[in-house]
Amino acid sequence: MKKSFGSRPFIIPTPVWCVGSYDTNNKPNVMTIAWGGICCSKPPCVTISLRKATYTYGNIMKRQAYTLSVPSEKYVVEADYFGMASGRDVDKFKKTDLTPIKSELVDAPYVGEFPMILECKVIYHHEIGSHTHFIGEILDVKIEEDMLANEGKADMGKISPLIFDPGVGRYHGIGNFVGKAFDIGRKYPLKSE
Amino acid sequence: MKKSFGSRPFIIPTPVWCVGSYDTNNKPNVMTIAWGGICCSKPPCVTISLRKATYTYGNIMKRQAYTLSVPSEKYVVEADYFGMASGRDVDKFKKTDLTPIKSELVDAPYVGEFPMILECKVIYHHEIGSHTHFIGEILDVKIEEDMLANEGKADMGKISPLIFDPGVGRYHGIGNFVGKAFDIGRKYPLKSE
Predict the structure, then answer these.
(1) Burial of B27 (0-12, 13-18, 19+ CB in 10 A)
(2) Of A11, A118, A170, the CB nearest to B118
(3) Measured between alpha carbons, how far is A81 from B140 in angstroms, rounded to an integer?
């Protein structure tokens, strides 16, 4: 038996990504979001959704650019803080002693200490209701070299990103490897006999 | 030092959600995606992005509805299969012996055995490039009763959803609880002194 929870913005997993932007005084800001996801492969695009009241919303509308910095598990306190404080009230980079790095590709900063970075140019935005939905073209993906697997590929286990559970408001880490994609499903027939 | 991977649709974590739809003969179909995310709180909306070549794309364009069924870890083989086979070629519910349940709210089926279900009405779609981006309003969230925590809330640890790593094409489970959101970040000041 399933229990109905009604019309709610609730699904799992959701990501924990820190959105980097500059304000009108070129002050770097960073804000954590869980409302987002990849939305296209060619061109590669990722969405984020923001309330208009956020400082980041105004920054991105002006600069038409943002970065996503993926925190590893050890930065869970800083990631949570970036989602609570506003750049209007406080310099979040200074308070946490983390380093804003200016992107060479888009007009936005990223968090130097975080292991994975996406640099995005806004190609579209759309107001839905409480949130404005931004679609950003991913111009580059950068990953810390010591978090790559032997063959030079990214290793999620080493990057150890966070997962957000919006139901109870909790962060989890990444769990064990449970299967190879586009592979284990071959147990079942791809065509009818 | 960070290594550049170029312009790629790559970030972690991404979800593993199974999209339910009906074809023109009312045959239920289900397809696994990782390109999606929550995009609005009011109204609650979730996006999915599909290539036009998929069977699910045509189904959703006609019915303007879809469900998302969240597989638990024990259904990783079926979830992978749903992302490999096409509903044009095979009845994926029959082959896996899983049960299509007709939603009472939208014109789409969901996977009865999966622990968490969202029923969505398409309110908007937009072509980006390789993918069409659908925004669905979430009309209900249903969760298996024995996967709720004591206080009746959903428990991500019990639902045990999958996480997809698009870099290497691997599924992982959910890891340990690492912190309470909107709480642990209070270590740092929310306002300037």
Answers:
(1) middle
(2) A11
(3) 31
Q: Which residues of B53-91 are buried (b: 16+ CB within 10 A; e: fewer)?
A: ebbbbbbbeebbbbbbbbbbbebbbbbbbbbbbebeebe
The DSSP call for residue B105 is S
State whether residue B9 sits within 8 Å of chain A by CB.
Answer: yes
Distance, CA of A127 to CA of A119 (rounded, Å): 22
Q: How many CB atoms lie within 10 A of CB B4?
A: 12
What are the average pLDDT values for consecutive 10-residue runs of chain A, which has 193 residues?
95 97 97 98 98 98 98 98 97 98 98 98 96 98 88 84 94 96 96 79
Largest CA distance in chain A: 65
SS (HEC) of A92-145: HHHHHCCCEEECCCCCCEEECCCCEEEEEEEEEEEECCCEEEEEEEEEEEEEEH
Contact B23, B112 (CB under 8 A): no
The secondary structure of residue A186, as a DSSP letter, is G
For position B151, what pLDDT does the model report?
Answer: 76
State the Cα–Cα distance between residues B29 and B15, nearest whole angstrom: 19
Decide if pLDDT at B159 tops 80. yes
Nearest residue of B to residue A2, measured between CA atoms: B144
Q: Which of residues 11-70 of B touch A (CB under 8 A)?
A: 11-15, 17, 34-47, 49, 68, 70
Chain A residue with the nearest C-alpha to that of B81 = A185
Measured between alpha carbons, how far is A108 from A26 in angstroms, rounded to an integer? Answer: 9
Chain A hits for B9, Cβ within 8 Å? 38, 40-41, 44-46, 138
What was the pLDDT predicted at B192?
81
- Contacts of residue A97, defined as CB under 8 A and 6 or more positions apart, other chains included, come to none
- Single out the residue of A98, A112, A86, A88 nearest to residue A31, CA to CA: A86
pLDDT at position B193 is 67
Contact assignment for A170 to B180 by CB distance below 8 Å: yes
User: Is A84's CB within 8 Å of B182's CB?
Assistant: yes
Q: How far apart are CA B50 and CA B57, in angstroms?
A: 6
Contact between A7 and B118 under an 8 Å Cβ cutoff? The reply is: no
Q: Chain A contact for B180, CB < 8 A?
A: yes
